[in-house]
């Protein structure tokens, strides 16, 4: 049973080396709304049409293989066991291809649309080595079907051609803010920077974020709207980290989730643990900002609890990667922490008012 492990590990390394799209990407509704708001250039739409054939073909292949497997003479147990890789692998590849296609159209992340093409290059090397070995060991000519994998590989890279046209190359700059997270205002842009981790060079996230202090955000704008950007250097990997946020439309839901707000309540509680009376003027200003951030985060977290429910639902706990205790999501715990945060904010404002009056 241990023999399949090395091939599986090597296959996993090949997949990671091909750079699959990270995260879930924008929902279909968001992509369609973005297309209605700002129509992509014709070359981008042409490339998207070519890329769309891949997930459709993979889904059709998954259905065909599943139908053939279920109709085979194998025992029911083996049919059930083989159904997972036979159907699951092309289905997973289709999902990744679809995820990359959405990002090509919505954010101009062209590289995400060519994950299967890069993976095909790895497969082509292995296939070519096997084909050469077969031809050297057999005097018969190879069948014409031996070129089909190369035809498929050429098609996988074909959408790259229209994306080299000037209008397509300008598309990522026109929608640069879509790479960021939707926030309600500049304060939430500040809090986003303090909540989200740097993706890092590897698969794992760097554990660092900017401190919970008011930063000088740079206003940015593109064809999709307005936003802010904070540039800082990650102390873990040393890379410059541009954190981008764009202003959400009026009434639209922001991209910050329960995990972001819960983490911010913890950071704010740590930053306001001291007595504000003994702080200097700059420290008191940072204390007041952190206290206000804790109140805002607590209120947003409490708003995620539906009426009649006792805790934040699972689907609203997205955002920062973290594993808090289950009781951290309870309404009673959030209300208790919010009460403490409001008291600390009131104490900071009283101290500021006292010093201003004196």
SSE inventory with pairings:
Elements: H1 5-17, H2 28-37, H3 42-70, H4 76-106, H5 115-137, H6 148-157, H7 166-174, E1 181-183, H8 186-195, E2 218-222, E3 225-233, E4 240-247, H9 258-271, H10 281-303, H11 331-357
Parallel strand pairs: 1-4
Antiparallel strand pairs: 2-3, 3-4
How is this structure best described in words?
This protein has 358 residues and is an alpha+beta fold. The protein folds into 3 domains: 135 residues, no CATH class; 70 residues, no CATH class; 101 residues. Helix content is 56%, strand content 7%. The chain is built from 11 helices and 4 strands; from the N terminus they run αααααααβαβββααα. A 4-stranded mixed beta sheet has the order 1-4-3-2. Helix 5 runs antiparallel to helix 6 and helix 9 runs antiparallel to helix 10. 30% of the residues are buried. The N terminus is likely disordered. Keywords: Membrane, Transmembrane, Transmembrane helix.
């Amino acid at each position: 049973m241990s023999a399949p492990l090395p091939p599986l590990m090597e296959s996993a390394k090949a997949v990671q080396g091909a750079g699959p799209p990270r995260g879930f990407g924008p929902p279909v509704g968001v992509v369609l709304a973005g297309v209605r708001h700002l129509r992509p250039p014709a070359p981008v739409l042409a490339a998207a049409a070519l890329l769309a054939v891949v997930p459709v073909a993979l889904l059709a292949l998954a259905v065909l293989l599943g139908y053939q497997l279920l109709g085979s003479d194998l025992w029911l147990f083996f049919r059930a066991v083989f159904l997972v890789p036979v159907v699951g692998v092309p289905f997973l590849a289709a999902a990744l291809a679809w995820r990359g296609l959405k990002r090509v159209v919505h954010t101009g992340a062209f590289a995400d649309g060519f994950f299967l093409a890069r993976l095909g290059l790895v497969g082509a090397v292995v296939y070519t080595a096997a084909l050469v070995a077969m031809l050297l060991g057999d005097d018969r000519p190879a069948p014409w079907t031996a070129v089909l994998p190369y035809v498929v590989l050429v098609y996988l890279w074909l959408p790259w051609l229209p994306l080299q046209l000037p209008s397509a190359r300008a598309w990522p700059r026109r929608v640069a803010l879509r790479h960021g997270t939707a926030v309600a205002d500049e304060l939430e842009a500040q809090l986003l920077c303090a909540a989200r981790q740097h993706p890092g060079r590897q698969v794992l996230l760097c554990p660092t974020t900017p401190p919970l202090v008011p930063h000088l955000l740079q206003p940015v704008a593109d064809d999709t709207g307005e936003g802010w950007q904070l540039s800082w250097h990650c102390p873990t990997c040393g890379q410059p980290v541009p954190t981008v946020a764009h202003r959400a439309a009026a009434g639209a839901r922001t991209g910050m989730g329960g995990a972001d707000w819960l983490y911010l309540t913890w950071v704010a509680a740590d930053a306001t643990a001291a007595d504000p009376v003994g702080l200097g003027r700059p420290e008191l200003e940072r204390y007041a900002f952190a206290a206000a951030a804790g109140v805002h985060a607590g209120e947003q977290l409490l708003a995620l609890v539906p009426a009649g429910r006792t805790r934040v639902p699972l689907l609203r706990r997205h955002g920062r990667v973290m594993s808090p205790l289950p009781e951290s999501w309870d309404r009673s715990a959030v209300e208790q922490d919010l009460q403490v945060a409001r008291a600390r904010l009131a104490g900071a404002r009283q101290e500021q008012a006292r010093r201003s009056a004196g």
